[in-house]
User: Which sequence fits this backbone?
């Protein structure tokens, strides 16, 4: 039986230290009881209380690690809410590029190189394909082991071993057990043998079944056999059924504390039509897959999917920001133009990217607006001509250039007169309203 907030509160230090982020210990206890926080988030919790309430402190959805320890290790699960606005989502969906068993060894290696190179930068963050789904279906045990070993040694990302024959999967898993691949997948037909493969190699296991009841039974069997890290697997091509099942499983874990389904989910969205695959993968990024297997590795498919995951798994209460300082784009000189913008990451990187595209080396003065874009900062009183002038002075921008021309965002024309009247920047130029207009604007207005 789940413990109540009062049960938990009785074993807290009752110091109301606020270090957990809540005003009182009682408020924190209520959040733990609601599975919104882990009991271990209390910094003053005694060892006795931790032991007594181990179940209560565990998140309703297990955290699963795939791959060896390190930056490339994939972490999925440990989610605490159904909807992002309730708190936030924690571990972003991982895209897994499929390496088909039908490929030759050379083609498989080339495919893995594509996966290794599928990495991009957006708003100052690195986003990339996080896993390689290596299909061993139809290969001999020796061939599967050899391919798994070759690809694992060359891979920057953890592997998923895909196959239905336990003997073949066992050979592949045994060859790379130290890499902690995800065994994919246990079914009603091969469950006992696949669970043994995962347990013997101490690897995480993906399980699938026709119904959630059968899937819960498989997860229990895996746990009883010593496989602690389980992933619930679904076929994304049956979209409606998968959406129902994956949502029901998440709700059972988070709302009903049903531990047998308290594991992260994965979806095989791979299909021949890249447009359909993109739509499916984006759908299950939002609802609620921790891993999504795809075929397409073209940037036109990957960038939208990686961007979607990046956006969905950003804390909605904490805007993405960049440091408020003076940035140099290109080989700037004392004749380079000076622009200013806000410290909202998307705004800054949009401006920076267009300045770089213009091939006009420039200075960008970033004003601290608490992570708001230009219009929101203006409406929220987070930016003003006085603040812009103060920031220019703090960043010693005037020492960098011999002119006193300042390009301001086209959405802030009222700033022009006040900046000219109250600062040394006597020629304020109103720039384009959109960052996309910067290259043409600089080409036409800056010599």
Assistant:
């Amino acid at each position: 039986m789940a413990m109540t907030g009062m049960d938990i509160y009785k074993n807290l230090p009752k110091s109301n230290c606020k270090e957990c982020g809540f005003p009182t210990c009682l408020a924190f206890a209520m959040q733990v009881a609601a599975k919104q926080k882990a009991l271990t988030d209390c910094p003053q919790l005694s060892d006795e209380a931790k032991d007594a309430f181990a179940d209560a402190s565990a998140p309703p959805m297990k955290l699963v690690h795939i791959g060896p320890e390190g930056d490339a290790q994939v972490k999925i699960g440990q989610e605490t809410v159904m909807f992002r606005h309730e708190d936030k989502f924690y571990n972003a969906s991982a895209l897994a590029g499929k390496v088909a068993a039908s490929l030759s060894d050379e083609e498989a290696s080339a495919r893995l190189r594509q996966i290794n190179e599928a990495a991009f930068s957006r708003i100052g963050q690195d986003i990339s394909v996080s896993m390689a789904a290596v299909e061993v279906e139809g290969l001999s045990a020796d061939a599967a082991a050899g391919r798994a070993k070759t690809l694992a040694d060359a891979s920057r990302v953890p592997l998923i071993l895909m196959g239905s024959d336990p003997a073949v999967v066992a050979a592949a898993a045994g060859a790379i057990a130290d890499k902690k691949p995800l065994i994919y997948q246990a079914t009603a037909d091969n469950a006992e043998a696949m669970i043994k493969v995962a347990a013997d190699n101490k690897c995480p296991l993906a399980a699938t079944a026709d119904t959630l009841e059968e899937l819960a039974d498989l997860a229990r069997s895996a746990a009883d056999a010593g496989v602690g890290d389980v992933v619930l697997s679904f076929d994304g091509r049956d979209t409606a059924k998968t959406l129902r099942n994956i949502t029901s499983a998440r709700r059972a874990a988070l709302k009903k504390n049903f531990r047998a389904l308290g594991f992260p989910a994965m979806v095989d969205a791979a299909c021949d039509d890249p447009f359909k695959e993109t739509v499916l993968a984006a759908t299950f990024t939002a609802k609620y897959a921790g891993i999504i297997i795809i075929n397409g590795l073209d940037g036109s498919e990957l960038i939208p999917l990686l961007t979607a995951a990046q956006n969905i798994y950003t804390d909605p209460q904490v805007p993405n920001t960049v440091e408020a300082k003076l940035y140099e784009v290109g080989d700037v000189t004392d004749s380079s133009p000076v622009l200013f913008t806000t410290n909202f990451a998307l705004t800054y990187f949009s401006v920076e990217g267009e300045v770089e595209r213009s091939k006009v080396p420039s200075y960008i003065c970033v004003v601290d607006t608490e992570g708001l874009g230009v219009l929101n900062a203006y409406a929220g009183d987070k930016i003003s001509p006085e603040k812009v002038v103060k920031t220019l002075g703090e960043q010693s921008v005037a020492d960098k250039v011999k002119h006193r021309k300042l390009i301001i965002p086209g959405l802030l024309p009222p700033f022009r007169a006040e900046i000219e009247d109250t600062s040394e920047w006597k020629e304020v130029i109103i720039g384009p309203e959109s960052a996309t207009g910067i290259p043409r604007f600089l080409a036409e207005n800056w010599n």
Notes: The mean pLDDT is 92. The first strand starts at residue 63 and ends at 66. The first helix runs from residue 5 to 9.
